[in-house]
């Protein structure tokens, strides 16, 4: 388990001070996949580097399995760090070493018995699907393959926690997907807790259980991915979920829509999207719903459907129909044009 408690980090640059983290608290339970999303400069890298004390917090505590690692001596800290693997956007592989050596050299340095080194290298190269690449050099591999080597290298230390610092940011969408699948597999089959930072919403959507949104060194919103997706509260979260310009009715539509009625977004979670609610509305109430736009977000365990709908009708009937939808646990939000 990772627990960051009131962590602040200040950098002094010349006469200036930069507050990279301001009183950040966040817990990652054992076995979870938790992601931090934010724009550039939000403080994500500083935060993840505080987890293994690559960056020492100015104030606050970092607990790993209930031990405050900010108070440990060098030797004790080294031991805790062995439980924490890390992967990076730039892979950080040794260019002059083969795939196999990239995994075995750090194990030798850690003092892992010789007979175990080969076993572990074989095992984890097999898990990441690179058993046939032992003797290749990093520059003979694709970006995705390099990241797989980096993941195998991290796993070979048999960590409890894997930190991922923008691990898929340099990869194309298909390769990103395959690396995310691998991280899911590592979490599920090896029980490794994953804490990641990213600026890509898709990463959060596909593999995270919980997400924290960062802005200017602070966590502005945090929760289960499903809750954040279906009902984002903070402006920054809305920008990630709905895009910079928010939910908008396309101009040509806005001109043609009847002036009466309401434009609403309807959010459906999981199975509720299967019922023909708009047909029911038209049948049960004196309203005419028409779909302006829509889409489905596939999250790790569930899907969230969103529809932008114009409900035409007299105000009282429209309001009744909205109440009906809310009673069916559909989230209804009015869109102001
Ligand atoms: N070593 C450092 N010295 C001085 N300032 C730093 C240092 N590291 C980070 N900062 C500053 O702290 C703030 C947060 O940076 P950080 O790299 O953590 O953000 P980020 O969200 O990871 O951004 P990016 O995605 O661009 O890496 C920025 O203003 C940055 O300039």
UniProtKB/TrEMBL annotation:
GO terms for biological process: amino acid transport. One of its GO terms (molecular function) is ATP binding. Keywords: Amino-acid transport, ATP-binding, Cell membrane, Membrane, Nucleotide-binding, Translocase, Transport. PROSITE patterns: ABC_TRANSPORTER_1 (PS00211), ABC_TRANSPORTER_2 (PS50893). Gene3D superfamilies: 3.30.70.260, P-loop containing nucleotide triphosphate hydrolases. The keyword Secreted does not apply. It comes from the Bacteria. One of its GO terms (cellular component) is membrane protein complex. Residues 2-241 form the ABC transporter domain. Belongs to the ABC transporter superfamily. This is Methionine ABC transporter ATP-binding protein.
